[in-house]
Amino acid sequence: MEHDDVLPVLYDLVVTIGSELSVKPLLTRTLQRLLYHTSYSAGFVCLNVPPCKAEDGQVEVRLDAVVGDFDLVGVIGKPIVLPRALICQSASRETEQTALLSALRCTQTQYKSCLRLPINHSGMIVLLAAEMPETNLPLTTMLQPVLAHLAKAVILCSHNDAYTSGLVNQRDLLEKVFESSYSGVMITDADRHIVEVNPAFTRITGYSSEEVQGKDPHMLASGRHDHDFYRELWEDIGNNGHWEGEIWNRRKNGEVYPGWLNINRVCDSTGTLHYYVGMFSDISKRKQAEAQIHHLAFYDPLTELPNRRLLIERLQQAFSFGARSGQHGAVLFIDLDNFKTINDTKGHETGDLLLSEVARRLTSCVRDGDTVARLGGDEFVVVLESLKTGADEAAAQADLVAEKIRDLLSQPYRLAEYVYHTTPSIGVVLFLGHRQSLDDVMKHADTAMYQAKTAGRNTVRFYDPVMQASIEARADLEEELRYALELQQLCLHYQIQMDSRNRPLGAEALLRWQHPERGLVSPAQFIPLAEETGLIVPIGLWVLQTACVLLNNWQGDASTRDLTLAVNVSAKQFRSPDFVTQVQRTLVDTGAKPSLLKLELTESIVLENVEDTIAKMRELKLLGVSFSMDDFGTGYSSLQYLKRLPLDQIKIDQSFVRDIVNDPNDAAIVRTIIVMSEVLGLNVIAEGVETQAQRDFLDSRGCHAFQGYLFGRPVPLQDFEASLKA
Ligand code: C2E
Ligand code: MG
Ligand code: MG
């Protein structure tokens, strides 16, 4: 090995030493490597020089380690005497070498060079070497610059070594650490009474040392952890001598903060417990920052899905990708159909569980590169990328995914012991590059979702321009509905209700809108609109008044005297604070017999706020009116609630009646509803009865009241009264 080759190797070794903490073992290793690389026949010894034992020019040192091919192993750990001048580095090179070599009892013939490397005051390393005959380069010349560095590195390292080498008073050091530590330190005795805290403790908790001495550390508890938490913590310390983790504590000023706590048991050599040492840091800032960065910036904290901001970013990327590749992408706008009901009736916790589960299912439906985002509430967006270049094929692909999502989200949800059902409405829009603006794509997807909702929910709909027109028409309709009442375009039709011996029991009043241009508008079309705009409140009151006037009129005729009149009440109307007063006043004003007025409620009304509903129903019952549960079976009411509601009647929804004869499921449901009504002491009526077979089936199963086209369609009052007479 040439001189120039050797130096870099050695330099590396020096740097290695400089970066390590513990000097002696490292030095041993490094010097071994050094010798190996230089292929000198050499070795070294480590001498341990005790602090001030120098007398009369002689110093007794201990031989700590020997590396190399000489026979000194026998003297390891033994003292040898060296000239004091050698240790003080004042001896001349000659003296130094001779003295050292003779002290180490090495013969001059074998080792020609000798280099010493002092390690602070604690000792030195002596390098001994035989010259290399070929190069004729003395070892000292060759290694001089390297050893200079080595010495510096060793001195640096030995600072770190000071503690272990016993040069610094341990107590002083510990005290320094305790006082200057950034972490709060708390020491308790074996009975967990605080004996000492450090300044950082005071800074973090607000309690001075005097305030806490002798106290139980539990005084710092925030109340956020339950009994089990602390029990497990102390169990851990008992078992392992140690506990580490996150903990919420309370400062003196009452503020609760998260900390990272580390508790250790301190025992003596016999194993007797003396202290617990707790070290903790306040991690509230870190946590806040983390939470902010993670949750607020780009992700929805509940579902961990990308939020709107990240969605926009991903969409922009998808647009750019599509522009380059010519491939379509798709945006799926997903809204849950009855999330609000579940959220309102089962509580937000259940709602949150449901949303998280929906997020999981959505994620499972898409490929890795696709994005599932939550916009808020129950609105989710899925972005599909890299679809086919042809629009039709791409649409088919997107439809496949959308249907898969629809299917998966309609599966039952088991959330905290209960099972829930929901369905999605999904709007789909395709995009290709930057042909449409991002805003437009999102708007169109939203519109398509709305279209899916109006198409009966649990549906997938693609955006198309025709939709735009119908949206606008809806806006017009809303405007016109505002004046319908004033312009006397609203009227009531009546549909007869019969018993099994074909005797009229009464009628249901059904609202109709006679529009000057549109003709007769179905309530299915305008009632939801009236609900949304709040117009249902004045309209509903008008229906109630009209029905009560009629009830009063019917009193004058024997054929109509005992007929009941069922009036539909919408959620908004029922919830309005003066609904009870309105009914009461209407009954008084019109002179209608309250027992003949039947209010039809739907399950969604009832479930919205069960306690409030029960209270309101009781008040109304005191007036003498009765209640029927409309569309029964389509909602989510449980027997639990049903039992508590002061109902008089259950109305089997027409969707069950429709296939009752052919569909064994529907037949079973209807049978169950009838039995349940009996158990609850309620009477039961079936709506939507169109055929004799349906009627007979119901009659034979115990339902003896009917409403449906078989007996009569909803008709204007004149026709209704005429048919009664006939
Ligand atoms: P609903 O209360 O369940 O009323 C029964 C609906 O079923 C009525 O539709 C009725 O015409 C229809 N129907 C009756 N017999 C049969 C049958 O044999 N076969 C079929 N296929 N259908 C039958 P309509 O009149 O279109 O009313 C729809 C919904 O509008 C009502 O459902 C009710 O929820 C709401 N509605 C009607 N009038 C009012 C009102 O005055 N106030 C409120 N809040 N809602 C109303
Ligand atoms: Mg009804
Ligand atoms: Mg109904």
Q: What would a concise description of this structure say?
A:
This protein has 726 residues and is α+β, with helices and mostly antiparallel strands.
List keywords for this structure.
726 residues, alpha+beta, Beta-Lactamase, Alpha-Beta Plaits, five-stranded antiparallel beta sheet, 27 helices, binds ligand C2E, binds magnesium ion
Question: Can you describe what's shown?
Answer:
The protein has 726 residues and is an alpha+beta fold. The protein has 4 domains: 3-138, 2-Layer Sandwich (Beta-Lactamase), CATH 3.30.450.40; 163-287, 2-Layer Sandwich (Beta-Lactamase), CATH 3.30.450; 301-463, Alpha-Beta Plaits (2-Layer Sandwich); 478-725, Alpha-Beta Barrel (TIM Barrel), CATH 3.20.20.450. It contains 27 helices and 27 strands. A hairpin with a 4-residue loop joins strand 18 (490-499) and strand 19 (504-515). The protein starts with a helix and ends with a helix. Mean pLDDT is 81; it is low at 1-22 and 156-170. It binds ligand C2E and magnesium ion (2 copies). One magnesium ion binds at residues 630-631, 651, 653, 687.
Low-confidence stretches: 1-22, 156-170
Task: Count all strands and give the number.
Answer: 27
List bound small molecules: ligand C2E, magnesium ion
Instruction: Write out the CATH superfamily name of the largest domain.
Output: EAL domain
CATH topology of the largest domain: TIM Barrel
Distance between the termini: 126 Å
Shape descriptor: elongated
Enumerate the strands of the largest sheet in spatial order, edge to edge or round the barrel.
18-19-21-22-23-24-25-26
Helix content: 40-55%
Strand proportion, as a percent range, falls in 15-25%
Q: What's the number of structural domains?
A: 4
**Helices and strands: which structural class?**
alpha+beta
CATH class of the largest domain: Alpha Beta
Major beta-sheet overview: 8 strands, mixed, barrel
On the 0-100 scale, what is the average pLDDT?
81
CATH architecture of the largest domain: Alpha-Beta Barrel
User: C-alpha Rg, in Å?
Assistant: 45 Å
DSSP helical segment count: 27
